[in-house]
Amino acid sequence: MAFVEFRDVCKLYQMGSVEVRAVDGMTFDIERGELCVIVGPSGAGKTTVLNMLGGMDSCTSGTITLDGTAVSGLSERELTQYRRHQIGFVFQFYNLVQNLTALENVELASQICRDPLPATQVLSEVGLANRMDNFPAQLSGGEQQRVAIARALAKNPKLLLCDEPTGALDYRTGKQILQLLQDTCRQQGRTVAIVTHNSAFTQMADRVIRIREGRAQSVETNGHPLDASGVEW
Amino acid sequence: MRSAFLKEILRSVRGSLGRFLAIMGIAALGCGFFAGLKLCGPEMRRAGDLLYDGCDLYDLRVISSQGWDSADVDRIAAANGVDAAMPSRTADVVARVGKQQVAVRVSSLDVDAAAASSQASDYEVDSDDPFYLNRPKLLSGRWPQASGECVVSADPTDPSPEGERLELLYGTQDLGKVFSVTELEVVGVIASPVYPYTGSYGSTTLGSGSIDRYVNVAPQTFAADFPYTEVYLTVEGASSLESGSDEYEALVTKTKKRLQAMADDLAQARLADIKAKAQEQIDAAQAELDDRSADAREKLDVAQAKLDMAAEQIESSQTELADGEAAQSQGKTQLDQGRAQAEAQLAAAQARIDSGKAQLADKGAQLDAAQSQLDSEAAAQLSSHGVSVANASEAQTALRLAIGVLDQGRQRLADLKAQIDAARAEGKTDEELAALLEELRAQAAALLEPYGIEVIDGETALAKLDALRQELDSALKGLESAQARIDAGREQLAQAQATLDAAQDALDDQSVSAEIRLSVAQAKLDVAQGTLDSGRSRLESAQSSYEDGARQLEDSRADAERQLQEAQARIDEAQRQVDDLEAPQVYVLDRTQNEGVATYDADTRRMDSIAAVFPLVFFLVAALVSLTTMTRMVEDDRVLIGTFKALGYSTGRIASKYLLYAAMASVSGAVFGIALLTQVLPRIVTFAYSIIYVVPLAPLPLPIDPGIALVSGGIGVGVTLIATWAAVVSSLTSTPAVLLLPRVPKAGKRILLERLGPLWSRMSFSWKVTCRNLFRYKRRLLMTVVGIAGCTALLLTGFGLHDSIWDIIDRQYGPIVHYNTTVSLDDSATSADVEAVAAYLGQEGATGTVRVQSENLQAGSSLHAPLRVSVAVPMSSDELPQALTFKDRLSQDPVTFDDDSVVLTEKTAKLLGVGVGNTFRLYDQDDVGNAVGEGHELTVTGIVENYVGNVVYVGREAWAAMGSEDPVFQTLYTNVGSSEGEREALSSALASQDHVSTVVFTDETINMYRNALSAVNMVVVVLIVSAAALAFIVLYNLTNINVSERIREIASLKVLGFTRHEVHAYIFREMVILALLGDILGLVLGTWLETFVVTTAEVDYVMFGRLIHAPSYGYSFALTLVFTVLVLLFMRPKLDRVNMVESLKSVD
Question: Looking at residues A131-140, what average pLDDT do you find?
C-alpha cells in the first residue's frame, strides 16, 4: 500500500446553479520518502488536490489515505488534528506571522504538535541560524520561505506539502528553496509534495503527477531525478 | 462614467455592509445621543409649557402683605400688558386628617368655572372663562360646591381621599377670621399647575415647614371679610412663548416691572382703603365708648344722689336721738331725787316706830319680871304642897288639877262615907264597915298623903280634905288675880305692839309703794334707754352702710373710669396703629418664584448640563471608529485606488468615493439616530420626571429642534468625514505604481515589554504576538480603549448616580440620624407641655428622646443670598449624640458640639461658601419666603456630614447670645417601635395630646425620598443601555476590522492545525486585553464623570453621596466585560467562516 493514495477522488463545487467538478476521479499514489511534483495548468485542479491532501477540504467521493489512515471521511475536528500532526504546509506567500520573529514563527507550529523538532535546530538546518531573532519584514523573500519551510518541518510532519514554493521568489532564490526541499527529502527521508504549474520542476522529482481537467493525466516515476541546482526554467 | 463610479460606491457599500453599518451605527449613536440629550431639557420645558398654557397658569402673581380687595384687583387688572387677572385667597393651616396633622395650603377656586371646564387632554383644561386661571385637573371625585367642600392634591399613599375630613386646627392667623368653616370635606382629587412638583408644594412657617397637601375650596369657605391674598395674572402674548425662554422672561419682566412700578401706588391705595375701613371701625368704637361713658357717669350720679339722701336721713335721726338721750338723762335725775326723798321719809317713820318698839320692849321686860316673880312665888307655894312646877301657869294648872282631883276624891269619899253611913244604917257589920272605912281611909290617904297630911281616920279625912281644898283654892285665886294683872299689862302691851305693828305695816306699805313707783319710773327710763340704744345702733349701721355705699360708689366710679380709660387707650392705640399703618409690602412674583415651576426649570437646566458632557464621549468614539474603519477600507482598496489613479482619476475624485461612502453612512446614521433618539431619550427622561412632576408626556412625535439636529448631525458627519479624509489622504499621496504593488505588511516590532527578559521568555508565543499586536495598531488600541472606557464610564456614572442617590438615604438615616420619629409641638406649647409629651413617649417605650428647638429661618453669607435652613437648638448638647452623629465626611472624625457651637451641614456650608471660623447670618423669614431683618451673625465652629436638608445646629448659649427669646425646645427627636402598627398607634395617641402639632416618622420620609428619586433609576437604565450600545458598536467594529485584516493569518493558523478554540483565543485575547485596559481607564473616567453629573444634578436641599461604592465599580467593570464577551461570541462564527484557502491567495 502506497504512502499516499488517491482513489477515484471527486470534488464538486456548487457555484450557484452550476456544478463544477474541480477534481473528477483522480487516482494516484505517492510512496514514502519520495519528492513528488504535481504539475498542471491553471484550473486543472492542483489547488483542490492540495487542499484535500492537506486536510483543508474534504472530497466529495473517493478515498484519500495517508500512511494507511483514511483522510477522506474525517470530521472537521479530526481534519484539524490531521493538519496539526501529519502535515507540514509551505505557502506561496510564506504566510508568516509578521509580529513574530523567525524563531517564534517556527515555535508557533512546534508548540502545538505532539513530537516537534527543536525550532532552533530546524532553523539552523534551513540555514537561518543567524537570523532567528529577525522579524519577517527584516528577511528577504527566500529567507522568509526558509522560515516557512522550517515552520512546516518543525512539526515533524509525515507529509510536507508545498504550494508554489518559489512562486514569489526570484530564480536564484527559488532554486535555493527547491534545493532545500530536495535536501529535506533526500537527507531526512521526508515525503515532500510540491504543487506547481512549472513543469521544469519535474526534472528533480522522484514522481511526477500531471493533472489536467481534474484528472491525473499521467503518473510517472523518475529513476534519475536531477539535483535541484540543475533545474532550469 | 459617473454612474459607474457611483455604482462602484453603492456596490462597495453592499460588499462591506458590516463596515457601513458600523459607521452608521456610531454616527447614529453619537448624533442621536447628542441630539436626544440636548433635546431633553428643551422637551421638558416644552412639556411644562404645554401644561402651563393648557391650564392657563399665571405668569405673574401679585401679593400684598395686607391682602387685596376687589378695587385693588381692578387696579392691577388695568395695568398695561395684563391679559387676565384672577384674585384668589390662600391660607396655610395645620389640619388634622384622621390621626395625622398635616400642613395644608388652602386656596380659593372659582368653582363655577371649574365645574364648567372640560379636560381637553392630559395637559389641557378648557374653559370659556378667560379669567379662570391656574385651572386644576380633576383626577377623581367632583368639584367642590358648598362651603366646606374641598378638592385635594393627589397623594400616592392615599389613592381615594374622598370623604376624608380635614379638621382645621390652627394657622398663621386666627382661623375664625380666615374661614367660615372649621372642617373641610374632601370631595375630589386634583392636580394643579401651580404645584407641578409633587415632591414639595412649597414651604410654610407652620408645622414641619413644608406644605404636605394643597386643597382648593369654594370661595365662601373663606370668611366673608377675609381679603384676597393674591392676584394671579396672565401677560398678553406670554402663552405663545415658551415658559422659561428668554423671550418669555423678557415679555413677562416688562409687565412685571410695570407692576412693580405701580406697586407703590397699589400699596398706598390699599393702605388708604385699609385705613378708611379701620378708621370707620375706630370711630364707631369711639362713639360707642362715649355712649358707654355717659351712661356710666349717669348711673354713678344717680347712685350718688341716693347716697346723699341717705346721709341726710342719718343726720336727722342723729339729732332726734340726741334729744331723746337728753330727756332720758333728765328723767333719770328726777327719779334719783324722788328715790332719795322717799327713802328719807321712810327712814324717819321707821325711826319713830323703832322708838315705840323700844318702849314696848321695856314694858314687856317689866311684865316678864312680874311674871317670873309670880312664877317663882307660885312654884314656891306649890312646892310647899309638894308639887313642883316651873311657873305660874303650870301652878294654876296644877292647882286646878289638884282641886279637880280633890273634888273628885271628896265626892268618892263622900259617896264612900254615905255608903258607910248607909251601911252603918243598915247595920252592916263592923267588918263590912271596917272594910269600907279602911277603904275610905286608904282613899283619903291616897288623896292627902301627897300633901303631907296624915290620914288616921277616914271620917276626919273629909274635913282635912275640905281644908286643903280651901287652902288650895285661895292659892289658886291669889295666883289667878296676879296672873290677871300681868295678863292685863300684857294686853296693853299687845295693844301698843299692834299699834306699832300697824304703823310698821303702814310704813312697809309706803316703802313698797314708793319702791314700786320708783321701779316703774326706772322701767320707763330703761325702755326709753332701749329705744335710744336701738336707735343708736340702727343709726350706726345706717352710717356704716352709708359709708360702704359711698366707698363702693367710689370704687365703681374708679372702676368705670379705669375701664373707660382703658377702652379709650385701646381706641387710641388702634388709632395710633391706624395712623402708623404702613403701606403693605407688595410683591410681584413670576413663575420663577413658584417653587414647583422653578424646581422643574432647574431640573431641565440640569438635563442641559448633563447633555453638554455625555455626548462628547460618543463623538470621540465616533471619530475613532470612523477613522479606523475608513483607514481599513482605504487600505483594502489599495489596489483599486492605484487602478483608479492609473486610469486617470484625480485624487479628489478618488477621495470623494470614500468621503461619499463615509457621508452616506454617517448621514444615514445621523438621520436615523437623531430621528429615533430625539423621540426616545426625551420621552424616557420626561417619563422619569413625570413621576415627581405633574408635567404631562407630550404626544409623539416630539418636535425636533432643527438647530440641535443640524449641529448634532453636522458634528457627527463632520467628525466622520474628517476622520475619513485623514485615512484617505495618506494612501492617495502615494503613486499608482506603489499602490499597485502588494502592500508591505506592517513590520513586526519589538516592544518595550521584551526588555523584561524573564517575563517575556516565559510568555507563550501567542501572548507574545498578542502583546506585539496591541502596540502594532495604535489607532485601534486608542479607539478600543477609549470606546470601552466610555462604555465603562457611562456604566459607572449610572451605577454611581444610583449609589449617590441611595446614599442620601442609607448614609443619612442610621449613621447620622438615629431617631426615627420627630414630634413637634405648636407655638403655644409651654415647657411643661413638652415635658408631658416627653414623659408620655417615655411611657410608651420611646428611647433616646432629645429635645430641641427647631426653627425655619434663612441663612446667608457674603457669598450667597439667604437660603432656607432648619435651625435646631438642642436643649442639652450632651444628649444630642443620642439623636445625631456629628462627623466629618472625609475623615469620619467626630465633630464636637457644645452649648457654644454653631455647626453647619456640609451642603449648607458649601452653598454659603463658608468654612470653620467663617461667619454667616441667620435671618427671620416672612410668609413669602424672603429673609427679613438684619439677622444675627454666627461663627461656624464645625461642618458635619449630612445629606438631607440644610440644617444649622446652634448651641444653647450661642442661641441665647443672638438675643432670641428663651426657647421652649418644642421638638422631640425620639425612637419608637418601627412597625406600621406601632407607628399608627403612637401617632393617634399623640394626636390626642395637647399641643402636639406634627409627628413625622423617618421611615415615611425615607419612602417619600425613595419615590421622588425613582426618576433617577430610569436615567441609570438609559445610561446602561447606551453604554451597552456603545460597547457593542466599538467592539464589533474593532473585531470586524481585526478579523478581516488578519484573514490570511487566521487561515494560515488553521492550516497549521490550530483548533477553533486556539484560533479564537489567538484573536480574542487581544480584544479582551484592550477591553480590560479600556475598562480600567473607564473606571477613572467614570469617577470623574459621575462626580460632574452628581454635582450638576444635585438640588440645594440635598447632598448626594460623594462616593461610588465598590460594587458599582465591580458591576461596571464586569458588565463591560460581559458586553465584550457577548460581542466576541457574536464574532465567533465569522472567525469560523474564514476559509483556509485564503491562505493560498496572493497578498493584495
Answer: 87
Is residue B752 within 8 angstroms of chain A, CB to CB? no
Question: Which contiguous run of DSSP H or E holds residue B562?
Answer: helix B458-580
**% of chain A exceeding 70 in pLDDT:** 100
- Closest Cβ–Cβ partner in A81, A95, A107 for B1052: A95
Map grid coordinates 300681868 to a residue. B486
Would you call B579 helix, strand, or coil by DSSP? helix
Lookup result for grid cell 527566500: A142
Q: How far apart are CA B668 and CA B21, in angstroms?
A: 10
**Whether B175 contacts B182, CB under 8 Å:** yes
User: Which residues on chain A are in Cβ contact (under 8 Å) with B773?
Assistant: 99
- At B1 the pLDDT is 46
Per the rule left: phi > 0, alpha: psi between -120 and 50, beta: everything else, B106 is beta
Give the distance from residue B733's alpha carbon to the nearest chain A alpha carbon, in angstroms. 23
For residue range A142-189, what is the model confidence (pLDDT) as tens digits? 899 889 989 988 888 989 999 888 887 888 888 888 888 898 888 888
Beta bridge partners of A38: A195, A209
* pLDDT < 70 stretches in chain B: 1-3, 99, 207-209, 385-386, 458-459, 735-737, 739-751, 753, 757, 765, 926-930, 991, 1011-1016, 1099, 1145-1148
pLDDT of B433: 75
pLDDT digits (tens, 9 = 90+) for B308-367: 888 888 888 888 888 888 888 888 898 889 889 888 888 888 898 888 888 888 888 888
Cα distance between residue A231 and residue B14, in whole Å: 48
A113 to chain B: closest CA residue: B1057
| B1147 close to A (CB below 8 A) | yes
Phi, psi of A63 (to 5 degrees): -130, 145
The per-residue pLDDT of chain A, averaged, comes to: 87
pLDDT of residue B1113: 92
Facing residue for B746 by CB, picked from A50, A87, A98: A98
Half-sphere exposure of B737 (CA within 13 A, CB side): 0
Query: Which residues of A fall within a CB distance of 8 Å from B1064?
Result: none
Residues of A with CB under 8 A from a CB of B: 47, 50-51, 54, 56-57, 77, 80-85, 87, 89, 91-93, 95, 97-101, 104, 107-109, 111-113, 135-138, 151, 155, 163, 168
Cα separation, B938 vs B958, whole angstroms? 8
Nearest residue in chain B measured CA to CA from A109: B1056
Question: For cell 375664625, what's the residue?
Answer: B176
R_g of chain B computed on alpha carbons: 70
Residue boundaries of the structural domains of chain B: 777-811+1003-1148, 812-1002
Residues with Cβ within 8 Å of B534's Cβ and at least 6 positions away in sequence, in order, are: none
Whether the Cβ atoms of residue A143 and residue A132 lie closer than 8 Å to each other: no
Residue B228 · residue B73 · CB < 8 Å: yes
Helix runs in B965-1001, H state only: 980-991
Can you tell me the distance from the alpha carbon of B244 to that of B242, in angstroms, rounded to the nearest whole number? 6
- Amino acid letter for position A66: L
Residue A53 structural domain: 4-230
Residue A136 is part of a domain; what is its CATH number? 3.40.50.300
Tell me B742's DSSP state: P
User: Residue B745's pLDDT is what?
Assistant: 59
Pairing mode, if any, of strands B213-217 and B100-108?
Answer: parallel
Has residue A222 got a pLDDT over 50? yes
Rounded Cα distance, A75 and A91, in Å = 24
Contact B138, B190 (CB under 8 A): yes
Closest chain A residue to B1048, measured at CA: A95
- In angstroms, what separates the C-alpha of A94 from chain B's closest C-alpha? 9
Q: How many structural domains does chain A have? A: 1
Is B1059 at the interface with chain A, CB within 8 A?
yes
